[in-house]
Structure formats: C-alpha cells, structure tokens
Amino acid sequence: MVHHQRYNQLKKGGDEEAGTLVFVWTNPGYYRRRPKLFSIVLLSLLSCIFIVVPHFFSSSALSHLYSFGVQNEGLAGDMDVNTPPCSSISNGTICCDRSHFRSDICFMKGDVRTHSPSSSVLLYSSKNNYGFINYVSSMVDDGEEEEDDELQHEKIKPYTRKWETSVMATIAELDLILKRGNLGVHHPCDVIHNVPAVIFSTGGYTGNVYHEFNDGIMPLYITSQHFNKKVVFVILEYHNWWVMKYGDILSHLSDYPTIDFSGDNRTHCFTEAIVGLRIHDELTVDSSLMTNNKSIVDFRNLLDRAYRPRISGLIQGEEREAQEKKISLSLTSGSALDIGKKVKYQARRPKLVILSRSGSRAITNENILVKAAEKTGFKVHVLRPERTTELAKIYRELNSSDVMIGVHGAAMTHFLFMKPGSVFIQVIPLGTDWAAETYYGEPARKLGLKYIGYKITPRESSLFDEYDKDDPVLRNPSSLTKKGWEYTKKIYLEGQTVKLDLRRFQKRLVRAYDYITRIHGRSRLQSQ
Predict the structure, then answer these.
(1) pLDDT tens for each residue of 309-318
(2) Is residue 119 left, alpha or beta, with left meaning phi > 0 and alpha meaning psi from -120 to 50?
(3) Contact 460, 500 (CB under 8 A)
(4) How far apart, in whole angstroms, are the C-alpha atoms of residue 450 and residue 519?
(5) Is the pTM above the cut of 0.85?
(6) Contact 124, 180 (CB under 8 A)
(7) Cα dist from 483 to 6, 430, 435, 486, 524, whole Å
(8) Which segments of 81-190 are extended strands (E)?
(9) Per residue in 175-219, pLDDT tens?
(10) CA 86 to chain CA centroid, nearest Å
(11) E-assigned strand segments in 263-414
C-alpha cells in the first residue's frame, strides 16, 4: 500500500526545492583539467595562429574551421524559452531535468557507454565540440584517467518516487559522467547498439501490483513509446520474475532483450540514453504532456495487444477441452446441444467480477453479496488473484466483464484491464477515503469507466466491535490518518474487515445493472 498521507503532505511544497540543471557546452575551449606546461605553450601557439591566419586566407577558407562554434551558437540561439527542459540537446551533452516533484530524468547524447562496476554511464565528448582540446590533451595524455578528466558529473536515482526519501534511500545511484573524447580508448565497447537506451530501476516498492504499474510500467510507456519499440531497456535492481511477469508488455515497447545493468559487466554503447522515467499522475497518462497526444486509453490498447496472443492460446486450449468433454457427455446423456445452449444463455447476462480478498479488508459476507448480485441479474465470477497469477488470465477475466467490485487496495489497479464504459464499484473502508479516490477513483474516470464509490458506515466495519461508538477511530477517521502513515496502516488497512449492508449496497448493484443494460442494450444481454 502506498504512503498516501506522506505524499499529500510533501506534495504541497515539493516543487519549490526542485530545479533544472542544464549544461550546454557552447565554449569549446573550456574543460576542468589543469593543463600541463606543454599544453599551455601549445594552446598559446594555436591562439596566435588563429589571430594571424585570417590575414593570409579568405574568410571562406576558414568557414569550416570555425563551423563547430557557429553551430553551437545557433543551437543555443534557436532555443524557445517555452520549450520544456532537455527537449532538444546536441551531441556530447548531458541534460538533467530535476524540476519535477515525482522524478528526475537525464538525457545523454553522443558516445554513451555503460560501466556497471563503477555504477556509471559515461559520455565521451565529440570532436565537433571539443576537437582542439581533445587533440591537445591527447598529445600530453599520460595514458591514465584522472578525476579532473571529467567535464561534467551528474548523479541520479532512476526511480519515480523522488519525494519519498525512505524508499529512495534503497535505490541504487548512478553516476553520469561527461569525459574527454580521447579517453574512450581506455573503455572500448563490447556491445554496440544502434538504438537508444532507457535506464531505470525496478527496486523500491516493486512486488506490489499498484507500484509495479504506477511507478514502473506506465512511466516506462510514457518515456519510451515514441521510440516505436526501437529502444533497449537497461534495468537496475533487475528481477527475473518482473521481466517474466511483464514480458508481454515489454515486448510491445521494445524489440530488444532487457539488460541487467549490475549483472552484465560488458560495456554497452549507445548513441543516446534516457536515465530515469517520466511520470504524470496516479495510474494515468496525461495526453497534454505527450508529444503525440497519447492517453490512458492508448496505454490500455497496448495492454490489449500485449495480452491478446496469450488469451487466444488459452481460449483455444479450453475449447479443445470443452469439445472433448462435450463429446464424452453426448455419448452418455445425448445432451451436448442443450449444454451448448445453456452456456450461450449464461454468457448473455451482464458479467460482474468480484475481486476477492482474504485477511485485512476482506468482505466477510461475500457469499451473500454473490447471491444479491445474481438476483439483480448479473452473472457473477469471483476472482481471487495471487501473486503468481498470470496477468493475462486476470486481464481476460476483467476485459470481458461489465462490472468489477473490490475493496480498496493494490488489486484495484486491475481496473486498467476493464473496457471503457464498464462499471467499477470500489468499496471504501473507514479511513481510506482520500487514497481510494486519488489512486483509483479519479484514474478510473480518466479511463472512461463509470466509477461508483461505496463508503462503508462504521457498522459495516469490524472496527465497530473493537472501539466505542464515539471513538475518533469510528467517528472521525481523518483525525487519525492526519497523524501519519503508520496510524492509517495499522488501524484502517491492516486492522479491519468489511461486512456489507446488502440492503444499502443493493442500490449500487441496481445502478450498475441499469447503466450497463442502458449502454449496451437489453436485447443484446438478454437470452433469446
């Protein structure tokens, strides 16, 4: 579960401390190493030549000699003051955008090389920008790299919960270093890639499905989809199970195998790298921030394409089993045709899926809820996903549903698997109002779902039997949640279960049924 109260407090003033750090190297004569005597003399000689030569040669003869400086000046001069930071950078440049509350992101362009033993990504300056300095330095280079050989040094933790210091303390930090181009000979490429890299971490809260989508998969889509799969994902805190779990999605974002940054000591070379991920809001894609106006619906369409092949395989396997079973039954009872009609009739009722929980925040009278929903007119499926449940199977179940019911918690992330126009009913336990609306209610509406929040009364909570009826735990939950995450977690997330008042909840079932039948048409949902 996310630390929503801490987030709410930090968000108010978080952006004031953030800033954007942009280095655009327009002066080709600047670097930080203290030159040796010979290099000083040689540089002085070159300066004299630049002063004297124009008197002996035409300006056209020198146009190429000065071109690198003019090009850089032009790039800087053409920059629009309203252009987002780092939206366009030149070769041999590291640009870091640290202006966002949720995450930092850095861009590297040119000769980019990984160096996992030192947790570094190196960028070697191009001759276009540093040609004379590299030339002179190479003449006096003693063959050893020094700290002063660094032209720029940035640090970044490529995870999207920048505001939450406790979890960020667990994220590995990367050094992004710009060095003189001639030093690349000391760090040869083992693997050369002709596509960009996106480097990010799957550490932190990975293991919780909400965070896996909100902090990882959706920011990865936002950051990389414009590459049209021509991109390599380089992962810190690499987990084989995560790559397998989300393999269907990753294969629709990249045509290339993922790279374990820490586990692969080879030097991987790229012409461009993005370190860190963009994130917009809770479980959403803001089309106004996307270069091609992609939205949360486009992300869901990608999920559909990703899981469709696996679902088709599951359906084919089930059809074969059903056909074999049908033949077997027909031999004993001769009722194969009747069985087929019965299945067809059941499929025409609006489908309602209950995402079942065990332990905390479980619905203790779930069996009665099932009967009430069936009486309303729904065909009811109870889904109990485990950590090991294949996502394609969950997607198939919810993609084909008309209504989903679940109690507030990470599993509500699966509303992303529902088709726009479906109904999502979230049962909201005491003390979870803000989180339920922020993390699932509002994002569900953005996806185009009909969202119905059901706030339970104190009598519907197991806490009613543990506290006096006038206790703030029951009468004023917000006074407890304001005290911090630990109070919310201990009392309201881990300490209560739900017993629905079915006479009260029935109104939501009827509202959902009427909405679905009105949208999709009663004739299509009823039996022939």
Answers:
(1) 999 999 988 8
(2) left
(3) yes
(4) 11
(5) no
(6) yes
(7) 10, 15, 15, 8, 51
(8) 93-97, 105-115, 120-124, 150-156, 174-179
(9) 999 998 877 778 899 999 999 999 999 999 999 999 999 999 999
(10) 20
(11) 268-275, 351-355, 379-383, 403-407
